[in-house]
Structures are given as C-alpha cells and as structure tokens.
Amino acid sequence: ATERTLSIIKPDAVAKNAIGEIYTRFEKAGLKIVAAKMMHLSREKAEGFYAEHKERPFFGDLVGFMISGPVMVQTLEGEDAIAKNRDLMGATNPKEAEPGTIRADFAESIDANAVHGSDAPASAEREIAYFFTNDEICPR
Ligand code: CMP
C-alpha cells in the first residue's frame, strides 16, 4: 500500500554534506519527498519527538546530539514507504548495518547514526504531524 513515513537526516550527516546523496537513495528506491524542511531543533522540540525514550539511559545524549546542529526533516511517500525507508537506513547501530545502507555508509556510532525513520504506521502518522501541517505536504 502507499504509505508516508517521517525521515530525519541527523546533524552528523548534514555536517558531512550528505543530504543530496541520501535524497538520491530515497528517490532511486521510488520514495517521493512530499515535504521537507531544514531546522535547528530546540531542546523542547527534540525531547517531545523522542518522548517515548524519556526513561532510557541514552535519552540525554540523544537529545543533546539532535540539537547539536541543523537537521533535514522530510515526509517520504511511496509503496511500503515505512519498511522501504528502514531497509535503506540499515540497523540502528551502524556496526550492525548491512553494507550499502545509509547507516553503514554515513554513520559513526549508535548515537550519531545519520538518519531516523518511523518504525510503524502509528508512529509515522504521529511523527509527520509533529513536524508538518497538512498544507505543507505536497503529494504528486
Ligand atoms: P532513532 O531511530 O532516531 O531513535 C532513537 C535513537 O536513539 C536511535 O535512532 C539512536 O540514534 C539512539 N540510541 C542511542 N543508544 C541507543 C540504544 N541503545 N538503543 C536504541 N537507540 C539508541
């Protein structure tokens, strides 16, 4: 089915000037970028986005990293977009990511892991709405 998913290119990959290479991977896989914005997240915005991880030991480092520089936030649309984006990203820990995935090629560590992608339809809906109003999404 056609789905939408929320993708974030994290501060490490933005700093590496890898936005274009990562966008090319989305587009070559048939995912359309239907909304996008560059943002430097506030602490409050990052904490709210990752609220489900609030009690995890890595929460403070995660939030600190996500506000360390600008991020590129996009909504991707396409057939099975949620799973397709997760395949393109590879495992959360880049040491475990398959060769040729975004994290294998661009990520340094489980904290600085280049990209985020929604993990299920419910989180995709919540995460897209967290960053984009309906009129900011431009399906084609
Ligand atoms: P992301 O998909 O953005 O969702 C939560 C992030 O927390 C994850 O990517 C990692 O960058 C980061 N993180 C750090 N340590 C861990 C861990 N032990 N397990 C899961 N995520 C972690």
Automatic annotation (TrEMBL):
Signal peptide: none
Major location category of this protein: cytoplasm
UniProt-annotated location(s): Cytoplasm
Cofactor: Mg(2+)
Binding site for ATP: 10, 58, 86, 92, 103, 113
Gene Ontology CC, one term: cytoplasm
Protein name (record): Nucleoside diphosphate kinase
Organism: Vreelandella zhuhanensis
